[in-house]
Amino acid sequence: MLTFLAAMTPGTQPEETWPAITLVWVCIGTLLAILVWPRGRGRRLARQIFAVAVLAFREGLRLKVLWTVALMALLLGGLAFFTDADGTHAGRAFVILNYCLSSGEVLGAMLVVLLSALSVAREIESRVMHTFGTKPIPRWGILLGKALGFWSIEILFILGLAGFTALLVRAVPMRPEARSSGMTRTGTWKDLRRNALTTRQFNVSDAEAGATARMKLIKAGSSQTWFFTTTPEMSKGEDVSVRLLLSSTVTFASHIENLGIKIGFENEPLLIDVVKKVPQDRPFELYIPVEQMNRNGRLAVTLIPSAKGKTAPSVAGSVKMGIAADGLYANLLKSVLLIALQGWILAIITTSWSGILSFPVTVALGLILVLGGEMSRQVLDILQAGTQRATTISMDSADVSVPKQVADQLRFMLQLLPDFRVAGGPTAFVEGEFVSMWVLAKAVLMMGLVRGIGWAIPGIVLFQHREVGR
Predict the structure, then answer these.
(1) What are the DSSP calls for 281-296, one per residue?
(2) Nearest Cα to Cα of residue 253 among 184, 178, 315, 319
(3) How far apart are CA 25 and CA 142, in angstroms?
(4) Nearest partner of 110 among 68, 57, 156, judged by Cα
(5) Could you tell me which residues are beta bridge partners of residue 274?
(6) For a 10 Å CB count at each end of the chain, is N or C smaller?
(7) Concatenated DSSP letters for 132-167?
(8) Which one is the CATH code of 199-326: 3.40.50.12780, 1.10.510.10, 2.30.30.40, 2.60.120.260?
(9) Which regions in the chain score pLDDT beneath 70?
(10) Residue 199 DSSP SS3
């Protein structure tokens, strides 16, 4: 398992492996505890929990809510496929991925909450749960089995949705582009896959390593150069991207006119020498074929703002070099894992509490968990940004002491909630964010095991003492 994680995560640091190692040993310890349980009770209990999970799975398949949710997800994906987006293949592919994965996340959460809330609460009200009281299985085993069964339903749903999403994205080049992006080649499946659907790890230039300021000011008519050290191994058989983020003193304009871009190795003919109209305040990428990058050298990226006109704008820019990390299917797998993690957290919590709470209250609890899990990451980011801003402008410690205390208290409270935006969320790769398997291992350990089961334990304990089937 660790070999698989390492293979999926190029360039990871050794200290980042502790979540995966801990997770592996937790699984090993659980299996050993089951096997060495006295008189075979562990194996018998595992079979009983599996039997309850199978019953819950079959029950979920019979409910109409599953097929309603599945139909809604497929409908949204089909509508996304027939939109034009920005007129390019890349734009249409990103719309499909956003629609399908976002709907899978939301509809999958709704599916798990409704299934778990319906099952236990309804069985208690109809006295079906009384029959479980006569069986030699602990109550926590009943709840765990049902949670696993409903979680399996959601996994089946998101696997089908991921396959449907992959087919739609693969079919995007079959429709003609309404217009060309001009900056990124996505007219064929090969171009779309390599130049849009492959996430990359971005490195700063040699001069910026360890620096705090990433944006450099370039006056009109002057130039600024960024240098990157290259090796034959770095391209990994894919085109290398150069990501640029620019802004100008003409802040109201959506684009920067007549920007000169020169890219090439030192003392050699240029690989790219163009003057283009480029987006302002939005990152864009240029791609260098792998055949030209398969070598040792020092790549120079030079930007030259136009000096034409009396009000020629100055430009502030940053440049990064991106090395291919994961393709579409690897990123879809990570998205499925993140949605499945969300489903497990909701399944174990709502199933455990549905034995104590009524159906409406259990659904409300699930909605609170979903909203809190989606928003907690954004609130934490805002709090962190505020603290960094206060440090940047050198505010006196007395001026920020009270807000900092409040921020710390809010941060502590929010960290108790399940975090469904961990690792950027299922659609992070659409924005070009690289998510490593080590980060996913940490998410499974801290969210799925620690916080998920931590929230479920009080409900399980209360259900143990409830008079049901005695």
Answers:
(1) SS-EEEEE-HHHHSS-
(2) 315
(3) 25
(4) 68
(5) 261
(6) C
(7) HTTSSS-HHHHHHHHHHHHHHHHHHHHHHHHHHHHH
(8) 2.60.120.260
(9) 1-16, 39-40, 125-135, 180-184, 209-213, 309-310, 377-408, 410-411, 414, 467-470
(10) strand
